[in-house]
Amino acid sequence: MADNQSTELALSGNDYASGEQQEHKPSFIGSFAGTDLVRQITMVVALTICLAIAILIVFWAKQPELRPLGTYATEELIQTLDHLDSQKVKYELQGSVILVPEDEFQKIKLSLSRAGLTKEASTGTEFLLKDSGFGVSQRLETERLKHSREQQLARTIEELQSISRARVLLAIPKENVFARKQKLPSATVLVTARGGTVIRDSEVDAIVDIIASAVQGLEPTRVTVTDQSGRLLNSGSQSATSARSRREYELQRTREAEYRQKVDSILMPVLGYGNYTAEVDLHMDFTATEQTQKRFNPDLPAVRSEMTVEESNVGSLSGGIPGALSNQPPLNSTIPEQATTESKQQIIPGRSHKEATRNYELDTTISHITQQSGVIRRLSVSVAVDYKPSVDGAAPEPRNQADIMNIRRLLQGGIGFDAQRGDVVEVISVPFIKDTIIDFQQPAFYTEEWFTRLIRLIIGGLIVIVLLMFIVRPMLKKLIYPEDTKDAYDEKSMSKGLDLGEDTIDMLNSSFDENSVGFAADGTLMLPDLHGDDDLLRAVRALVANEPELSSLVVKNWLAEDE
């Protein structure tokens, strides 16, 4: 009884001591100071790394998207930075490139424009205004001059209303003294249209003429113009036939679009949007014909030239040398058939000579006729009109013939209908299928900018939580409360139990005395006289397996004594 009482007192004293130790757990500084130096350094480094990672993740999640504002020279960079600082605008500088938040990009651009700090494009004359230097080679100077000319042409093209940016590339061959071996220059122009505008054919022709007239020896057929979408506006490598066919096709599509616009402007106020559909087809003749005619009109003769000679001699005949024959032939004599008895009359000598020459020219008309290219030979318009909607909710009814004829007359007058040309205008009433109309929805929410920022914040928060829960928290707990971790480990290991084996159990049953195994009054463990370390280890295992609670108290007392 005394032994049992002492054992209970010892156990109760141990419970009180352990409870007091749990109430007075060591502080953080005391626990940190009680560990060895290597452990202290490891914990400090690990906590510092975790804290730095958490801070970086938070800053990364909050950092807005940046967009380059531009690349500036030193003087422009200083002025721009001073303006941004005065406006308290957040920016990031990477070399000579200024990065600003994307959501404030347009606002910052407008502010710089109002302050007169907008970066102006190079005009191409900077090289011409400065000294080239003594050591610059002729080839390098030629390339610089060519680049300067390209910049000047690009700035000139950008003056057009529908052109936002332009880039010009010139291929100018080296001059050759032999004319047969002389190569012709060529040029390439890349243009970017302004938002919502279309580059017209007249503007393309203007660009080609600007480039061709600014470069000596450059022919317009060797200039290539392309837009930002890769659409070929003017080709310097295509044949004349291919280029003409492309222009004819574009002209036909343009004219058809103009007629469709006329049809829409006529029918939209009458029928409303979605109640009709129209299509226009043109048959155009692009045959180029030149004709020269020369016509003569015999009914209207005209005197071209006239020559008249008239000569008359009156009096005695001219005589020559006496005894010689005259140089004038004698006059024709007439001998009457019957002699008359009348007295002879005196004949007066005389001579008359007349000559006339007239040249006539017929009336001539020369006409040179050139037929117009791209003439509309036939126009076809097809219009389908939806049924007339009913008021009382009944089925829609087709439009009557009078309405169809009125719509047809409106179209014929609006598009310039010509029956002699063979134009056709067809208007019919058919029911439309409303279900096939596609309703354009708003873009999905996950494509918005705010959703991207939210995802970044969520990812950053999850990473910080994982670091705190699985890395920082266990390390701090182990550092502040090392006894709890040891107790948890001991209780966990003891609760699992140990497989002592049959040999150990037989050895304990045959060799141990029940009265000799237990705890003394002072709380010490009494074991029988064992021989060898193996026997001692087996006995301890058996005791721990049979009395796990008492064994844990003993271990706690040992740890308390060590401290």
UniProtKB/TrEMBL annotation:
GO terms for biological process: bacterial-type flagellum-dependent cell motility. It is found in: Bacterial flagellum basal body; Cell membrane. The keyword Transmembrane applies. Residues 229-253 are annotated as: Disordered. It is a multi-pass membrane protein. Residues 229-243 have a biased composition (Polar residues). The keyword Secreted does not apply. The M ring may be actively involved in energy transduction. This is Flagellar M-ring protein. It comes from Rheinheimera salexigens.
